[in-house]
Amino acid sequence: MMKKGLVVYKLYRALTHGLSPLIRLHLRWRRFLGLEHPHRWLERLGLPSQPRHAGPLLWFHAVSLGEGMIAVPVIKHCIRRMPHLNVLMTITTMSSL
């Protein structure tokens, strides 16, 4: 017998896989309306817009412009302490660009 969490996970994966063409269409529409970055909208589907550099990665994610601004000093501090790190900052809103 499968555990309840595994059943829910498999159901979620099946639904999202089935809905992925609609999600892509929705993102293309948002790009057409200017609500998504013209070259980076595929990142919302987990596809990178640039190649990843080799080495350790420190990933920051900001949902809003305020969160992005607050993260900048933390990122700068991390880079000063560990200059060998690759830093990736992802954002949700166009205003954070």
Main attributes of the structure:
12% strand; two-stranded parallel ribbon; 2 helices; alpha+beta; 97 residues
Report a brief summary of the structure.
The chain has 97 residues and is α+β, with helices and mostly antiparallel strands.
Description:
- Helix 2 links the parallel strand 1 and strand 2.
- The protein has 2 helices and 2 strands.
- The radius of gyration is 17 Å and the shape is extended.
- The N and C termini lie far apart (48 Å).
- The chain has a two-stranded parallel sheet with strand order 1-2.
- By secondary structure, it is an alpha+beta fold.
- The mean pLDDT is 86.
Distance between the termini: 48 Å
The pLDDT mean sits at: 86
Please compute the radius of gyration using only Cα atoms: 17 Å
Q: What strand order characterises the main sheet?
A: 1-2
Oligomeric organization of the protein chains: single chain
User: Judging from the principal axes of the Cα atoms, what is the shape?
Assistant: extended
Q: Please count the beta strands (DSSP E, at least 2 residues each).
A: 2
**What structural class do the secondary elements suggest?**
alpha+beta
Strand content: 5-15%
Helix and strand sequence: HEHE
Helical fraction equals 40-55%
